[in-house]
Amino acid sequence: MNFEIKRISKITSESLDLKRLREINKEKKMADLEIQETLEIQVSENSTKAENSRKRARVEDENSPEEMMEKITRHCSCTVCLDVPAVALYQCKNGHLMCYTCLNHLLADARLKEEQPNCPNCRCEIGLDSCMRNLAAEKAVGEIPTECSWCAQMVNRCNIEAHERHRCNKRPSKCRFNFAGCDWKGPLDKLETHVKACKFKFATCESAKDEIEKAIDKESHRARVKDNILNLFAFDSVIYTDFLVRSYRTDDYIPKLAFESNRQRIFNDEWILSCEIRGDSSSTSRQILFSMTLKNRPQFSRDIQLFVTRAPGSDFQLDHVTYLHRFTKDATSSPFFSLPLKSAAEINRFISSKSVNLRVYMFEMNEVERRGANRENQRANW
After folding, report:
1. Of 62, 108, 169, 299, whose CB count within 10 A is highest?
2. Distance between alpha carbon 288 and the CA centroid of its chain, in Å?
3. Which of 237, 300, 294 is nearest to 265 (CA)?
4. All residues at 6 or more sequence positions from 138 whose CB lies less than 8 Å from its CB, including other chains
5. What is the C-alpha separation between 316 and 349, in angstroms, rounded?
6. Residue 123 region by backbone torsions, left for phi larger than 0, else alpha for psi between -120 and 50, else beta
7. What tens digit of pLDDT does each residue of 283-309 get?
8. What is the DSSP letter of 125?
9. What is the three-class DSSP state of 85?
10. How many other β-carbons are positioned within 10 Å of the β-carbon of residue 302?
């Protein structure tokens, strides 16, 4: 009896121990799960914080002044030359930007090829009438800082030209005694130091004679050019006429673009102004030539000086050049002279125009001879 009681109590204690062991194992598993969940939460929180910090750093980098300026520069660049222009900005009807120089170049190429000019991005039709200036983009470009060519200082684009010409202390300069033969060239901030040690400061008239004569020859040449033009207005017969030259296609096997005006009555004669283009659409250097044609045969030779300028309402930039030609019965047309446009951009703008206004001054050199011939003709008729 006692043995049975002991065995039952032993079995009961063993079952209680097993039950307690199971509860302990269960509690351990629950604790392990809680610890694992806590670790996973911490890991996820750390990764989220790291991702947020990376995003924050990326946003800060994108919002940095350098990154913002780079974006503005990229969006305001010309779609043709891919550069930030220093001239007016135009846009097609879809908003793609082109600088004024590239727009005229596209229009000139299309005129020479007899094609319709298109935007290089969206292929829509473009022209001076359909393209508009984008003043907002021009103002944004003007506020973009750029590096000075001489001092590497960052200056706004709207002020960079004035800075490089007049304000920069590193801009190139010459010695003030260059008339005496000093060929020193250097930055402006070192000019005074050079002048103090310049050996030409004490040059004599005899030693500086050659250099002074060269400088005088240059200035006298410029003065002679001006005087020659002004002296032309002292001629007895001076007249000017505004020619409206219009573009057309020649009747050649390969039609070419040319310009010609209507007849204008000058000196009691009828004249025509013609222009032609040297250089095709693939040429990098183009030239505009002009010729004056007398439509009736003159009774005697006439020596006429020609001087072409821009007409009122025209903004083409031309140099001051005069040309002389003798019109005779056998030579009623002058040779094709170079139209003195100042830059390649002006030439492309001329080609892209459908009509151009030019003012031609004509100075007749043999007015006295012509009057004498008229008197003789009147006597003969009498």
Report:
1. 108
2. 20
3. 294
4. 88, 89
5. 9
6. left
7. 778 899 999 999 988 888 888 999 999
8. B
9. coil
10. 21
Instruction: Tell me the pTM.
Output: 0.69
Amino acid letter at 303?
D
pLDDT tens figures, 173-210: 999 888 788 889 999 999 999 988 888 887 777 667 77
Other C-beta atoms closer than 10 Å to the C-beta of 348 total: 23
Q: Where are the beta strands (DSSP E) in 211-354?
A: 237-249, 257-261, 264-266, 269-278, 287-294, 302-310, 322-327, 337-338
Residue located via tokens 């202390």: 169
Residue 140 vs residues 61, 70, 157: alpha-carbon distances, Å: 21, 12, 10
Residue type, 149: S
List, in order of start, the domains of the chain with CATH numbers: 73-159 (3.30.40.10), 172-231 (no CATH), 235-369 (2.60.210.10)
CA of 360: how far to CAs of 109, 182, 337, in Å?
28, 44, 13
Compute the distance between CA of residue 341 and CA of residue 351 in angstroms, rounded to an integer: 12
